[in-house]
Amino acid sequence: MRVYFDNAATTAMDERVIEAMIPYMREHYGNPSSVHSHGREVRTAIERSRKKVAELLNTSPSEIFFTSGGTEADNTALVCGIETHGLTHAITSPIEHHAVLHTLEQLAKKGKIKLSLVNILPNGDIDMDHLESLLKDNPKSMVSLMHANNEIGNLNDLQAIGSLAKSYDSFFHSDTVQTMGHYEHDLKSLSVDSIVAGGHKFHGPKGSGFLYVRKDKKIHPFIFGGAQERNMRGGTENVIGIVGIAKALELAYEDMQGHRDHILSLKKHFIESLKQHIPDVKFNGQSGDLEKSLYTVLNVSLPHSEENAGMLLFNLDLNGISASGGSACSSGATVGSHVLRSLKADPSRESVRFSFSRFNTIDEVDYTVQKLKELYSVVV
Amino acid sequence: MKYPIYFDYNATTPCHPQVVEHMLPYFSTHFGNASSKSHPYGWMAEDAVETAREELARLIGANPKEIIFTSGATESINLAIKGVFEQYSNQNQHYITCKTEHKAVLDTFKSIEAKGAKVTYLPVDNEGMVDLKGLAEAIQPDTKMISLMWANNETGVIHPVEEIAMLAEERDIIFFTDAVQAVGKIPVSTKNIHMMALSAHKFYGPKGVGALYIRHNHPLPKPKALIEGGGHEKGFRSGTLQVPAIVGLGSAASLALKNMKDESKRLESLRNKLESGILELEGTKLNSSQNNRLPHVSNISFEGVEGEELLRKLNKELAVSSGSACTSISPKPSHVLQAMGISPDLGKASVRFSLGITTTESDVDFAIAYVKETIASLRA
User: Fold this and answer.
1) How do beta strands A64-67 and A209-213 pair?
2) Do B90 and B148 have their domain in common?
3) Distance, in angstroms, between A244 CA and closest chain B CA?
4) What is the CATH classification number for the domain harbouring B95?
5) Which InterPro entries does the record cross-reference, listed alphabetically (chain A) (predicted)?
6) How far is B356 from chain A (nearest CA, A)?
7) In what order do the strands lie in the sheet with B174-178?
8) Does any CB of chain A come closer than 8 Å to the CB of residue B18?
9) Using a CB-CB distance cutoff of 8 angstroms, which residues of chain A are in contact with residue B89?
């Protein structure tokens, strides 16, 4: 059996998304900026995709900008949001994705902003009192806090953070890469200034993404050259990526509740079986709490064992199970997860992130628990 | 719908059928995140990316580790120019470029000018050539970079890149070239070149992917990253790698290397036929030098007709453009032709024909006849 439980790193594309993209590689290959019909046909496809995304998020097409992915979208919002609105202070958390954390750290290093990190509670949640006191001392800040943490699944209350940011005249950006296509975002009622998406996290293509920026918080472009994306993003559009991400989002919204129920039932079963079969199993962050965490992520903390120390992911792979120790972006690095370090996780225990998609099955969960049980049988 | 005959290969090209075939498995079966180190989905993806890097390196005569994958040439250009500007921050900075560069280069230079850089925009002669003596004289003690394109997108004019690169090397200045229109069309090399931008969709690869070549083992500095995050691409470009598109770029590079010699000969003879056929008309003129230009491009001006009407009529049967696709939405005359001393009206009544893989002799015969007929009716 081959089990893919690394869906927070990337997901398999939905066949219907691939089908929607292929014509734009073969027949409809024009440059969307060309005025002849090769170009106009493709331009129409892009604008149709933008309209679809906007409709699903309950906002206007003029607030959606296509990018090369979540990372570029985060960079755009932060670098250009800070520059355009003349902000000199930013607040983020130590457990943000590196696309946010490193971008803000660079700006601080260049002397463009002062950066404050909000305290994280032992369960991985944000210390909201500390956030408020930071805002009180530094009104007119860039606040960048993610919707759901990619490693431990903690969900932030965007509404609460957003209204707090608003009352201190701040710009609120949220990295929503892990929740886009998995949760409904109603941008009419949600008080955020910018959010982002990466298509490959919800069965769309890699290299596709978008940035939403609220109309009254307009920002200047990040990548210059050409009038594409209404002067917001130079460069010939990634047509297949744009068609693909819109299709993927459409499919995600078609049966979001159904997918969510299915994945939640897998996660619930996973948690219960692990508790039953592995003594002293724990869950990092809020990921073990079905109500308070991203339903696609379960970060398991396993007791120390000689056989598995530093080898657990390898042992899982030998058994056909693909999972990860944390974010794929830094999985080449030997420094370990900055998220788990911030939570002061016990380094003698092994942590594994299992992350699910609608394509996973209950048999895959049973199989994985069985293998973990075998790997940890000596501990008992 | 029926498309007109495509003569706009400088705007974009269709994906080669073999390129699409190579990409498809990476949308579905091999969907892994190339940064996932703990399972074969990641390894397969990473292998594919590294193979593509080797294929591209071979095409441009580089070392694979000198290739940074990006979302396209515009991003590569932004990374090169802004990255060098950031590298020299807090110093007086002077740059040299040319009036006929692509908007991606010109707009990016405008953005660093606004932040304090000084930029010299070299003129060109009436054939679109830059003067090497003028270039040498423009160099100042604080000149940090010379940025000149390899081949012009509108006229096909090829700059004396070898000489320019040698001059820059002698004066210890970074030479960056936008080689978007040259790569895959004519032989290029990286000798004495510090950075080179390129894009896949100009040589039968997918849109939304490109690369920046950055020379290794050289004392001149490398650019600072534009997009921060997980530290992908040796820290020069963060963001999950778009594996299928990168595979497509690699495969297009291999095909180009294999087919370039024969195909450029074939296209040159078709282009010459088209050009001499059209130039038989009175009041027509070639907008470039006869020599030193790409084999598949011809830019011709038509006296006594109005530009917009000409293009609209021609576009019924021929997908041609009046210049760069990136600026074709704006009704302004081409800045390239203007720099060559062509009047705005005549500039607007100029048409770029660019030929490619599907162009046949009968397409050319039809185009000559259709252009003649259209001009006659417009002048009547």
Assistant:
1) antiparallel
2) yes
3) 11
4) 3.40.640.10
5) Aminotrans_V_dom, Cysteine_dSase
6) 13
7) B67-70, B210-214, B195-199, B174-178, B143-147, B94-98, B118-122
8) no
9) 110
| Catalytic site residue from A18, A108, A329, A379 | A329
Chain A and chain B share a number of CB contacts under 8 A equal to 288
Query: B266 and B240 share a domain?
Result: no
- Which residues in B lie closer than 8 A to residue A236 (C-beta atoms)? 12, 72, 74, 199, 201, 207-208, 325-326
CB interface of A with B, residues 48-107, below 8 Å: 67-72, 74-75, 97-99, 102-103, 105-106
Written as six digits, the tokens of B249 are: 């770029």
Query: Minimal Cα distance from B29: which residue of A?
Result: A12
The count of structural domains within chain B is 2
Inter-chain touch B326–A33, beta carbons under 8 Å: yes
Q: How big is chain A, counted in residues? A: 380
Chain A residues in contact with B11 by the CB 8 A cut-off are 30-31, 33-34, 39
CB count in 10 Å sphere of residue B90: 7
Last residue of a domain, one of B237, B255, B273: B255
Known catalytic residue: B15? no
A38/B contact by beta carbon, under 8 A: yes
Separation CA A6–CA A352 (nearest Å): 10
List, in sequence order, the alpha helices (H) in A27-127. Answer: 37-56, 70-75, 81-84, 98-109
Say whether both B281 and B244 belong to one domain.
no
Is the domain of B112 the same as that of B181?
A: yes
Q: How far is CA B13 from CA A24, A173, A254, B76, in A?
A: 11, 37, 34, 19
Q: Which residue has the tokens 């696309």?
A: A99
Domain ranges, residue B351: 5-12+260-379
**Do B228 and B268 belong together in one domain?**
no
Task: Give the angle B198-B200-B206 at the CA atoms, nearest 5°.
Answer: 155
For residues B121 and B33, state if they share a domain: yes
- Chain B nearest CA to A73, separation (Å): 9
The pLDDT profile of chain A, 380 residues, written as one tens digit per residue, is 999 999 999 999 999 999 999 999 999 999 999 999 999 999 999 999 999 999 999 999 999 999 999 999 999 999 999 999 999 999 999 999 999 999 999 999 999 999 999 999 999 999 999 999 999 999 999 999 999 999 999 999 999 999 999 999 999 999 999 999 999 999 999 999 999 999 999 999 999 999 999 999 999 999 998 888 988 999 999 999 999 999 999 999 999 999 999 999 999 999 999 999 999 999 999 999 999 999 999 999 999 988 888 899 999 999 999 999 866 655 544 457 899 989 888 888 999 999 999 999 999 999 999 999 999 985 44
